[in-house]
Design a protein that fits this description.
The chain is α/β, with parallel strands linked by helices. About 40% of the residues lie in helices and about 15% in strands. The strands form 9 sheets. The chain has an 8-stranded mixed β-sheet, with helices on both faces. Strands 9-16-13-10-12-11 form a 6-stranded parallel β-sheet, sandwiched between helices.
Length: about 1000
């Protein structure tokens, strides 16, 4: 090289115009060559120089692509592909600081030390390498270039909050794809740039970003090497990378190199972190903003003057130490590692003899590992290639056989599959493209270059299309772009509510709400709303007018409290003045103005009131009845407040105070007085029951979401009690929780009506048959749809107690009569409006009245009568005859208990049964040692104790003085309950009241 040749270094941060100046300097010379760090950047510079100098004057050489005209004047290459046997006037090496890179640094160091132009040599890069250039290149002049724009730290930002024209940097393909997908869903889409993509694919992706079709690009650190794009912000999704050996943190210089892509020419740029990357510390931020980085201390070096006389001498030349200070021998790169494995291959060893064979072995070892597979697999493929090149037999001696090469390329010539599949095929074909560009490795390299290039282009285009489909929503991108340009968009609403903007479906109108396309979110949703706002607003206003004028049958109320109109929710129920008067709240967006909004709410309120009045007509009439007065008014108020049903025991005081005219008045309005509940049978139907449940749910939700369990299927008389349901759930549906079972109120009353004749029948037969009580038979169980332990639990919850006793078998005629009477009772209760049935059902068989003298289990609760003559306090029941014995605490007489213990199982006249009786409340257990008649006497001790205590009201049950028991005769004295009223007039006994029948039987006895 001429000693007067100018060698200089143009150093400085990014965005200083260094590459632009180098291109201008090269075009100012007759011939020139520029080495660039990336194939993508080489292609970009080639296209630019081709426009200025003409395609016939520009050559492009990369590892995979060679475009060489007959007599090119300018050479655009990657640094690794720079031809060394060509003399040119101008030579430029870009990003010269990569001489310190562990993988590729030795190549840049070689170009720094040996590549020169005849007239001018220019090194471009960061000023961190200035000291090393000064040491290695004598007479080199330096020029510092300031950055055109400022670079500042913007801190951490969420990916969905990144500004437009941002580049997100990640260091793995998985992370790149994940971020791109997130941006597509929230911001419309992103271009993708990675080193694994082919130049054609990367160029297409960059073009998408540069054209403005998308506002984001997700890339690896490849964008830090001179790619010129209009980036305003660079966000690091990670601050660590795998350098081939380990995961390590990025240095401040590496961060600055990538962050420097933000801000082009005079436009300021920003950088920051996103995703899981931790914020930068103040010291790093200051270094990056001021471009003050630690100077490069060592450059990578590898001996370029290799000895190919043998494999051993080749390895020795690779191990040659650096010739100067500041140089460090590079670690073994992929080519050196592949060479070592090939040299140990038994197929290769016999062929790798002599300078030519070893030179060819080194050339094969330098085939790049585009597939990024294990080094063993890569070395095995290279050994196959070397074996074909070293063959000496046949017509294909010295070159790769075309049939074998064709088989390898055809395996990749498919464009189906997903992104990863296409990327893998593309990596394979890039290997064969590199091989085809070695002119002496194939018999017809030009043909195979065309074949491999065509396959690579098809795969690149397919991969670009897949990336675009996967990570870019073209519709949203188009809308965003046109909105940014403030262009008017054509929007319309179809008959079925579809909102169309510029021929694209962007959402749907559901009732009075615009629902954007679920494929679009975030900023995309705002763009769609802005694009369709005018058409949507007009359509919603028109719908509101139609709703206000709609007939009542156009509306429907769902089980979740939503008001439906035209198959879409337009309102929901909210708390009102009381349970029967809820209000409505409109479901709409911001498009509907206040006047239309108020009109819609008023129309829904009117419809809702009419709907409740129709479905719950009996309850509404009872609420508004003017003929219901006095105490009856209070009962009616409680019924309305509870929406149609109250427990009898909770309203016992009010019910007892009701006169017969009051009861008749309430019955006229559909009220039934049952043994267990006061309710309105018409409200037990599915429609009113479900509405009542909903009204309870509205009150409990207090404006929140109404989430109610699924009600029992219509027609069920009972259902298993589910855990976790609200307390109001079963009562609102007209059911009462009875232990493990919820029973419909009307069926519960039918059960009570069926129990009464059974109790009366046994009471009439006397103690020998168990006395008052009933057995749980199939007829009773069928009424409530359960049996076994479940039915036992139901009875126990109603206040009945089981007693296992041995009694005489009931006579067959009596049993039949009992069944007949039971059938008659059920037939009577099938008409709930019949006064006689209601009078009978008003007598609860299970709850003893604490104000009534304790005579027997069946007399614990007086019969409720409707006539004024019978609406008087109950008097004491006449004493039982002397033959009747007192019951023991478990309900059996001592004689019965004794007979039970002494009677053998073979006695056909006895049977063991479970007799259910109302559980007594508030009564102490009787003394088992008292006289029981039939010759049994109390002990003398007990008799003495009895003589010491005066007899209270309990002796009025017919028990005699001390030691006499019931055989002592009837007690002469006051009745248990004295009354100032005149004696009751005789009247016929109510045949449906077993308590009245039993009372008459005892009086006669």
């Amino acid at each position: 090289m001429d000693a007067d040749a100018r060698v200089w270094a143009l150093l400085g941060p990014t965005n200083t115009g260094k590459t632009h100046l180098a291109i201008e300097r090269m075009l100012g010379h007759e011939t020139g060559m520029i080495g660039l760090p990336l194939r993508l950047l080489a292609r970009e510079v080639y296209d630019r120089v081709k426009v200025s100098a003409g395609a016939q004057n520009v050559a492009l050489i990369t590892g995979e692509e060679k475009i060489i005209p007959d007599n090119p004047r300018y050479w655009v290459t990657t640094v690794e592909s720079m031809p060394t046997g060509i003399t040119v006037d101008f030579v430029a090496i870009d990003e010269i600081q990569l001489a310190a890179d562990p993988e590729r640094g030795h190549v840049f160091t070689n170009r720094l030390m040996h590549m020169r132009g005849e007239l001018e040599t220019l090194f471009l890069g960061s000023d961190t390498i200035k000291g090393r250039i000064r040491d290695l290149v004598k007479n080199c002049r330096f020029e510092q270039r300031p950055r055109f724009s400022e670079l500042s730290y913007a801190g951490p930002k969420k990916i969905t909050r990144l500004p437009r024209r941002s580049a997100v940097v990640a260091f793995s393909s998985d992370q790149v794809y994940a971020i791109a997908e997130l941006i597509r869903r929230h911001r419309g889409g992103a271009a993708v740039v990675m080193g694994a993509l082919s130049p054609r694919t990367r160029n297409a992706q960059v073009a998408l970003y540069q054209s403005g079709d998308v506002d984001f690009i997700v890339a690896t650190d490849a964008i830090g090497m001179g790619l010129n794009m209009d980036v305003d912000h660079v966000a690091f999704a990670s601050l660590e990378k795998f350098d081939g050996q380990r995961h390590r943190s990025l240095s401040a210089a590496e961060i600055g190199q990538i962050a420097g892509r933000a801000g082009r020419y005079m436009n300021d740029g920003t950088f920051g972190v996103t995703a899981d990357a931790l914020p930068l510390d103040n010291e790093q931020v200051e270094e990056i903003e001021e471009h003050r980085f630690e100077a490069v201390r060592m450059l990578m070096w590898r001996n370029a003057a290799m000895d190919f006389s043998s494999v051993e001498t080749l390895f020795k030349s690779l191990e040659t130490p650096p010739p100067a200070r500041g140089l460090m021998r590079a670690r073994h790169a992929t080519d050196a590692a592949a060479l070592a494995l090939m040299a140990r291959d038994e197929r290769v060893q016999p062929m790798a003899k002599g300078t030519e064979a070893v030179t060819r072995l080194w050339e094969v070892a330098q085939v790049p590992d585009f597939r990024k597979v294990m080094i063993d697999e890569h070395a095995s493929l290279l050994s196959n290639i070397y074996g074909h090149l070293m063959r000496t037999d046949g017509g294909s001696a010295g070159v790769i056989p075309e049939d074998w090469f064709s088989t390898q390329t055809k395996r990749t010539d498919r464009t189906d599959g997903d992104i990863d599949t296409l990327a893998s095929r593309l990596a394979h074909i890039r290997t064969w493209t590199y091989v085809a560009n070695r002119a002496d490795w194939l018999s017809d390299p030009a043909y195979w270059q065309g074949v491999t290039r065509a396959i690579e282009d098809r795969l690149s285009d397919a991969l670009h299309e897949r990336l675009t489909q996967q990570f870019i929503d073209r519709r949203t991108s188009m809308l965003l772009k046109r909105l940014q340009l403030r262009e008017d968009l054509m929007a319309s609403v179809s008959a079925d509510g579809e909102v169309i903007v510029e021929g694209e479906f962007v959402g749907r109108l559901a009732g009075l709400v615009f629902v954007p396309d679920p494929r679009a979110e975030g900023l995309d949703g705002k763009a769609l709303r802005a694009a369709s706002d005018k058409a949507v607003t007009g359509e919603i206003e028109e719908r509101a007018r139609r709703l206000v004028a709609a007939a009542d049958d156009a509306f429907e109320l769902t089980e979740h409290g939503r008001i439906m109109w035209e198959n879409a929710p337009v309102g929901r129920l909210v708390v009102g003045a009381d349970r029967l008067s809820p209000k409505t709240d409109i479901i709409t967006g911001e498009e509907l103005q206040a006047v239309e909004r108020l009109a819609v709410i008023q129309r829904m309120d009117t419809w809702l009131a009419a709907h409740i009045a129709k479905v719950l007509e009996p309850l509404i009439k009872l609420r508004d009845a003017e003929d219901v007065t006095g105490i009856a008014r209070g009962v009616a108020f409680r019924l309305v407040e509870a929406l149609g049903a109250i427990r009898r025991d909770e309203a016992a005081e009010d019910i007892t105070s009701l006169a017969q005219p009051d009861r008749a008045m309430l019955r006229k309005h559909g009220v039934r007085f049952g043994a267990f509940s006061i309710f309105m049978p018409t409200l037990l139907k599915p429609a009113p029951a479900h509405l009542i449940l909903l009204l309870h749910g509205v009150q409990e939700a207090q404006g929140g979401t109404i989430d109610l369990p699924t009600p029992p299927a219509p027609g069920l008389t009972s259902a298993a009690v589910e855990a976790g349901v609200p307390d109001f759930f079963y009562p609102a549906l007209g059911f009462r929780v009875c232990g493990p079972r919820a029973v419909r109120l009307d069926m519960l009353e039918r059960l009570a009506d069926a129990i009464r004749p059974k109790i009366a029948a046994r009471a009439e037969l006397g103690q020998g048959f168990g006395g008052a009580g009933f057995t749980a038979d199939a007829d009773l169980m069928s009424l409530v749809g359960c049996s076994g332990e479940v039915f036992d639990g139901l009875l126990a919850s109603l206040g009945f107690k089981p007693h296992k006793i041995s009694v005489r078998k009931m006579p067959e005629p009596e049993a039949k009569a009992d069944a007949k009477q039971n059938t008659k009772a059920e037939a009577t209760t099938s008409e709930p409006s019949a006064p006689a049935a209601e009078q009978a059902s008003e007598t609860p068989p299970q709850q003893p009245s604490e104000t009534v003298p304790e005579t027997s289990a069946i007399e614990d609760t007086p019969a409720a009568v409707d006539s004024p003559a019978e609406a008087t306090p109950e008097t004491s029941v006449p004493p039982a005859p002397e033959a009747e014995t007192e019951a023991t605490p478990d309900g059996d007489s001592p004689e019965t208990a004794e007979a039970t213990s002494e009677t053998s199982a073979e006695d056909d006249g006895m049977e063991e049964i479970v007799l259910w009786r109302p559980a007594r409340k508030g009564r102490p257990a009787p003394n088992r040692n008292r006289g029981t008649g039939k010759g049994k006497q109390a002990s003398s001790g007990d008799a003495e104790k009895a003589d010491d205590k005066p007899r209270g009201p309990r002796n009025q049950k017919g028990r005699g003085p001390k030691g006499k028991g019931k055989s002592g005769g009837k007690k002469q004295g006051k009745p248990a309950h004295a009354s100032a009223r005149p004696p009751r007039a005789d009247k016929p006994v109510d045949p449906d009241s077993p308590f009245a029948v039993l009372s008459q039987l005892k009086s006669k006895s």
